[in-house]
Design a protein that fits this description.
With 130 residues, this protein is an all-alpha fold. The protein has 7 helices and no strands. It is elongated, with a radius of gyration of 17 Å.
Length: 130
Amino acid sequence: MKKDSKEEIVKAAISLFNSNGYAGTSIRDIATVAKVNSATIAYHFENKLGLLEYCFTYFFEQYLSIIEEKFSLMDTGVKDCLKRITADLLHYQCENIELTSFVYREMSMDSQVVREIMSTYALKEKYYFQ
């Protein structure tokens, strides 16, 4: 097993999910692009759904950490704090455009997985902005 196989799997999945959609991407496709065995994907993520959850969790953990970090600027004023948060979130999304595009597209689809994942992160985001 390659040392960085998990990272390669995630990169391949994000690229394929972005271009083909979640439903249009198979474990075999991801394994081929990542140059790993399908069993390696199962080892790290259990299945395609586990990989999807990992991608969503990674995206939103980074997203929320930006908000949390910038809340320390609240002492400089709400307006400046919100400007910094917005700028940093946009920067993060641009740096991770494939992941961002994929996550937002999947969020627009009504699925059990998306609802479960989003319920946690939407509540955290709502808490910070209230």
